[in-house]
Amino acid sequence: MILLIDFGSQTTHLIARRVRELGSEVEIATPEVAVQKIRAEEIQGIILSGGPAAVFEKQSPTVNPEIFELGIPVLGICYGQQLMCHLLGGEVVAGRKREYGPAVVRQQATGDKRSLRPSGLRPQFLEGIPDEFTAWMSHGDQVIKIPEGFVTYGTTETIPHAIIANEKRKFYGIQFHPEVVHTEFGEQILKNFLEICGIKIKKQEIDGEFVENLIKNIRDSLGEEKAICALSGGVDSSVVALLVHKAIGKNLTSVYVDSGLMREGETETLRSVFQQHYKMNVDIVDAKKEFLKALKKVVDPEQKRKAIGKTFIEVFDNVAKKIYAKFLVQGTIYPDVIESAGSKHSQKIKSHHNVGGLPEEMNLILIEPLRNFYKDEVRKIGRILGLPDEIIERQPFPGPALAVRIIGEVTEEKLEILRKADKIVLEEIEKAGLGKKLWQYFAVFTGIKTTGVRGDQRFYGETIAIRAIEATDAMSASFAKLPYDLLDKISTRIVNEVPEVNRVVYDITNKPPATMEWE
Ligand code: XMP
Asked: Is residue 219 situated within a structural domain?
């Protein structure tokens, strides 16, 4: 296994993904616990990630230099390279200018020529890498003096030490980012490093055989035991439930809590896909009353989230108690795993964001078969399992559901109005063929009443906002420039088909400063 020490790079997870794709296990750790992890697990190689800090500043993150005394190969990437140099006696300075984007790396050996391999060939680390290649840079500082025992193997126009190595100790440093697709031969460099670590490269393809193995592993881990799973109908929980169902059949009970806060048609889709088509053991719990009661008079968005989380746990706990399950299956995916603490495959429940913190006394063993995968990979697994597009391609939906799209107190009446308006937004955007281009598109019940006129009479009615967003991740987003005639159609349909509404507005705010959801 590779231990990836995270110094706060935007691409730490991408490094992990690349390593994993090459067939190695990888665990991300904070620098503070690195040595402890290396002692506890069988670590074959260490990667030091990039990061936003400067190694020569006082508060910058560092790592116990003991990691260089353990005889384990180390690869430092960007900040990781600078830190390795800093800790081993080299020198790092602030560059004259920051450098982002492509740069041409040229291989050459300078410094102590004697440490080159006798054949004069490149070190194993650079096997298969041409003399010149384009690499992606993103840094301000640079190494100006390498530590003793190191040799410089590559430079760029602005960087004297773009590739360095101490072959004897198996320490390697690169100033560029091999994990991003824009770096040519980035995968080859990582592959070379893994081979140096003694890891057998086996490129992982997600195909039928891979999914069969995944199912077999789950079956082997669960044996004849019973498991329970919270099925929300979202991509991750749907894929994980189906995987585990294929592994242990009726020994899995999937619990769908119908909170009454879901979009129109959710419960019916779930019933038809999972109960009727896959013949899964799905317990659909009608908890509408409990949720509405918990949300009564609650106006503050954070309080709403808390009330929903608490009610969810109570309902789920009640069902779980009746099932006598030993395992709890969750659809945690890789980006959810900030730092994997505890053992790799299972841990006792303490709290978890997906289910909102299940009580400890449930004493279930957690199983997270998707914790090594990214969303696109989870979708691929889902497709191989035969899940329909209406599940696989669905837009993200917040855990607290429509409750965070109703400003102010949530009531049954408001939910009803919102659901009708939301359905129209969905239908029209999908009819216009824009669904796949957008991250999310939905209606918001604003809680603002305005004056209108209907049939020559004054009509004081509700305002619905439309939100349509373009994004590639949840960090930033821009509002979608929907065609006016489409907005016209949506607005006309809403005011005609939802009698309580007399005004429709379009949210034209980007994220940041706004968030995607209104609450
Ligand atoms: P924001 O509103 O924070 O949303 O820009 C970013 C993405 O996350 C979704 N979202 C949530 N998902 N529980 C969730 O599981 C939540 O409490 C929650 N709040 C927002 C949101 O729909 C968007 O895709």
From this structure: yes
Helix, coil or strand: residue 402: helix
Using alpha carbons, select from 365, 257, 366, 244 the residue that is nearest to residue 319: 257
* Active-site annotation holds for 179: yes
What total of structural domains would you count in the chain?
Answer: 3
Residue minimizing CA distance to atom 10 of ligand 1: 398
Is residue 128 lining ligand 1, measured as CB closer than 6 Å?
no
For residues 191 and 217, membership in a common domain is answered with: no
* Residue 78 annotated in active site: yes
Instruction: Give the closest residue (by CA) to ligand 1 atom 4.
Output: 516
Which residue has 């299940």 as its token pair?
358
Examine the domain organization and report whether 354 and 422 are in the same domain.
no
Pairing relation of β-strands 478-479 and 457-470?
antiparallel
pLDDT per position as a tens digit, 132-156: 899 998 888 999 999 999 999 999 9
Q: 151 and 218 share a domain? A: no
Q: How many Å lie between the centroid of ligand 1 and the Cα of residue 404?
A: 9
Is 157:103 a contact under the CB 8 Å cutoff?
Answer: yes
User: Measured in angstroms, how far is the CA atom of residue 8 from the centroid of ligand 1?
Assistant: 22
Residue nearest atom 12 of ligand 1, based on CA coordinates = 398
Q: What percent of the chain has pLDDT over 90?
A: 69
Token reading at 465: 């906002």
Q: With bands split at pLDDT 50, 70 and 90, how would you rate the model's confidence at 130?
A: confident
Ligand 1 pocket mutation, candidates 352, 517, 518, criterion most atoms within 8 A of CB: 517
Q: Which stretches of 265-392 are assigned E, i.e. beta strand?
A: 282-286, 327-329, 365-367
Rounded to the nearest angstrom, the distance between the alpha carbon of 401 and the centre of ligand 1 is 9
Judgement on whether residues 335 and 476 belong to the same structural domain of the protein? no
Read off the DSSP letter of residue 74.
E
pLDDT at 361: 65
Q: Which of 181-190, 192-201, 306-315 has the highest mean pLDDT?
A: 192-201
Task: Indicate if 57 and 180 belong to the same structural domain.
Answer: yes
Q: Which of 13, 21, 27, 78 is catalytic?
A: 78
Task: Evaluate: CB of 400 within 6 angstroms of ligand 1.
Answer: yes
pLDDT band at 131 (very low <50, low <70, confident <90, very high): confident
Structure-model confidence comparison of residues 371 and 416, the more confident one: 416
222, 303: one domain? yes
Q: Give residue 397 CA to ligand 1 midpoint distance, Å.
A: 7
- Residue 342 pLDDT more than 80? no
Check if 177 is active-site: yes
Q: What mean pLDDT is predicted for residues 214-241?
A: 94
**Which one from 13, 139, 161, 177 is the annotated catalytic residue?**
177
Residue 341 has pLDDT above 50, yes or no: no
> Cβ distance 517 to 405 under 8 Å?
yes
Residue 328: which domain range?
208-392
Percent of the chain whose pLDDT exceeds 70? 92
The conformation of residue 251, written as its DSSP 8-state character, comes to: G
Does 248 share its domain with 385? Answer: yes
Single out the residue in 144, 166, 196 at which a domain terminates: 196
CATH number (domain holding residue 442):
3.30.300.10
